[in-house]
Each structure stands twice: as C-alpha cells, then as structure tokens.
Specification:
The structure is a single chain. This protein is of the alpha/beta class. The chain has three domains: about 55 residues, Orthogonal Bundle (434 Repressor (Amino-terminal Domain)), CATH 1.10.260; about 80 residues, Response regulator (Rossmann fold, 3-Layer(aba) Sandwich), CATH 3.40.50.2300; about 150 residues, Response regulator (Rossmann fold, 3-Layer(aba) Sandwich), CATH 3.40.50.2300. Helix 8 links the parallel strand 6 and strand 7. Helix 1 packs across helix 2, helix 5 packs across helix 11 and helix 9 crosses helix 10.
C-alpha cells in the first residue's frame, strides 16, 4: 500500500496522513489515532527514501536587511543561512527592495533589528506573514547573540588586567546591538565603582573608518585611555590603525578588544565570539515553527571571550611589577 492509497481509503489528504505519521502539525487527536490505526491494519511501512525527502522543507524564507547592512559579519551570516536552507530544501529569498514592493511575499521573513524594524513588522503582520527578528525585539519572535553578557565580559576582561580608563567605541542611534553591548560595558564598569562617563563613549559607526576616526579624534582632543572596548571587530581594526598612526603601541600603550569573532582579521584580536552558524540555524528553525502555526519564541545564543594579543595589563602595572 502506498501513502496515496492509504489517504484515499481514509478520505483524507496525503498531507494530513503524512503529518500524523511524522507527529507534526495540528490535528484532532481522534484523527491522528484513526490514521495510525489504519496504518497498522494495512501493514503500511513508510519508504525511508520518500520519508527523508518529505522532511525537507518546501517553505520559502526571505531576509530583509536595512540599507548599508552588508558588512563582513552579514556576509558570514548570509553564507550560514544559504547553507542551512540549501540542506533543508528551503527556498531562500534576498529581499533588497521595500517589502510593500513585492506582489508576493515568502512564507516567512527574517528582519535585521534596526530603527525602522517596527514598520516592517507591522506591514508583515497585516499581510499575515510570520517574521523573525535578528536582534533583541520585545513582543516578537527573535534570535540574538547575548550582547549584554558579551559587553560585560569584554569589559570585565580589561578590568581584570588592571585597566580603569576604558573607553567604549560604538554607534549612537539606537541600534539594538550597540544598546545592549554598551549596557554590558556600563554594568561591568559600575561593578568596580565607575559610573557613567559620556566622554569615554566614542562614536565608531560600526565600520573600520568610523572606528579609526572616532578614536583618533578623541585622542587628539586630549582624551586619555589605556584600553578600548569596540562593539565590533571592524571598529577594533580601525581603532588599532588610529592608535598606530598616533605612535601608540597595542597592547603596550593601549589594549583593544572587539566583538564578533570575525575570521581573517589583520591582528590577533582579543574579541567576543558570536556563533554565527547557530544564530542562522535558530532563525530558520524559528521561522519554520511560525509558518507551521507555532508560538513566538525569544532565543538568546551564547557568546564567548577569546583572548588574543591585543590586550595586556596597563603600562603602570607592568612597571610596578618589574620594580618589585
């Protein structure tokens, strides 16, 4: 007996019978029991090859990023998404245009959390299309690295080395990743009795050039620090370039730590590493759950500190140790 014959005998759709067999989807328990009983009575055994193929998703999932979001981090994230979706047979759609310009939308859409994300969420809700936000966003389904913890552990690493004059390099403007990493920085500083110091929070615009300009401008205007926590590896690279051009040595004069864990950096950077592959997988999993009528979830993916050669104790402590 084939699956088609079994469904015909029961007067049900092939999809309903398949979902009962796989334990997926919503249906009355009585219907599920009737299908399983009919399978037993007919001696029906699923074809393993067909069963494996049936597990492959036929959903379409789009991703909508804000203008200017294609940076090294997103290139890696994009590759991870393509890998996950190709393995599952999911159609992956790049959505570069405004959402309201598409005549037909995918089954679900991934959204990067930016200032205008609320408008896109509202539009998708009106169209009945599930959305997963890539970033912390209350009252939505979202997947996010543990940015607050990452900011805290990066700053705590510098504090443990003996630094107290620690500047933060981020991007003002309300971006979620900056808000959370900045909050972690402030929490770690407050834990050792150092309150808010606005002059130590520099503008880096989440780019190499922004990190360079923000750090160089601050130093030339007289701000002195022994360490920098940069909220992205790109800003950290720019910051190190600025310090070197100013005649300062990293980490002998100023320590620098980044965030992301990007490969191929020009320095052996101390950084907070994101699990980009897991974030992509969790986002696709959550999108497929929503497509099937499942509940919204908030998923926070752990991050980890990786010590490189760009952080060390401040010079004052080194001299103190050498004089003992």
């Amino acid at each position: 007996m084939t699956l088609d014959q079994l469904a015909l005998n029961l007067g049900l759709s092939k999809g309903t019978v398949s979902r009962a067999m796989n334990g997926k989807g919503r249906m009355a328990e009585e219907t599920r029991k009737r299908i399983l009983a009919a399978m037993d009575e007919a001696g029906y055994t699923p074809d393993p090859t067909a069963q494996e193929l049936s597990k492959r998703s036929r959903h379409s999932i789009g991703i909508s990023l804000s203008a200017g979001d294609i940076r090294p981090y997103f290139t890696l994230f994009w590759r991870a998404l393509v890998q996950v979706t190709s393995e599952r047979g999911t159609r992956f759609i790049e959505m570069n245009e405004p959402l309201d310009s598409y005549a037909r939308l995918p089954d679900a859409v991934l959204l990067h959390s930016t200032i205008e994300v609320h408008e896109r969420l509202a539009f998708l809700a009106r169209r009945g299309v599930p959305a997963v936000v890539l970033g912390h966003q209350p009252d939505t389904a979202f997947v996010v690295p543990d940015d607050v913890y990452g900011g805290r552990v990066a700053t705590a690493h510098l504090l443990a080395l003996g630094h107290r004059e620690i500047a933060y390099v981020g991007a003002a403007g309300g971006q979620q990743s900056d808000l959370d990493r900045r909050a972690g920085y402030r929490e770690a500083m407050a834990a050792v009795g150092i309150g808010p110091r606005p002059q130590f929070e520099l503008e880096g615009r989440f780019s190499v050039l922004g990190g360079y300009r923000g750090v160089r401008r601050a130093w030339e205007q007289g701000l002195r620090f022994t360490a920098l926590f940069c909220a992205s590896d790109e800003m950290a690279v720019g910051a190190i370039g600025a310090l070197e051009d100013l005649g300062l040595r990293v980490p002998a004069d100023v320590s620098v730590i980044g965030f992301d864990g990007l490969p191929g950096m020009p320095y052996d950077l101390s950084t907070v590493v994101q699990d980009i592959e897991r974030i992509a997988m969790e986002a696709i999993d959550l999108a497929e759950v929503l497509i099937d009528g499942g509940l919204k979830r908030a998923i926070v993916v752990p991050v980890a500190l990786r010590e490189g050669s760009t952080t060390a104790p401040p010079r004052s402590m080194e001299r103190s140790r050498q004089s003992r």
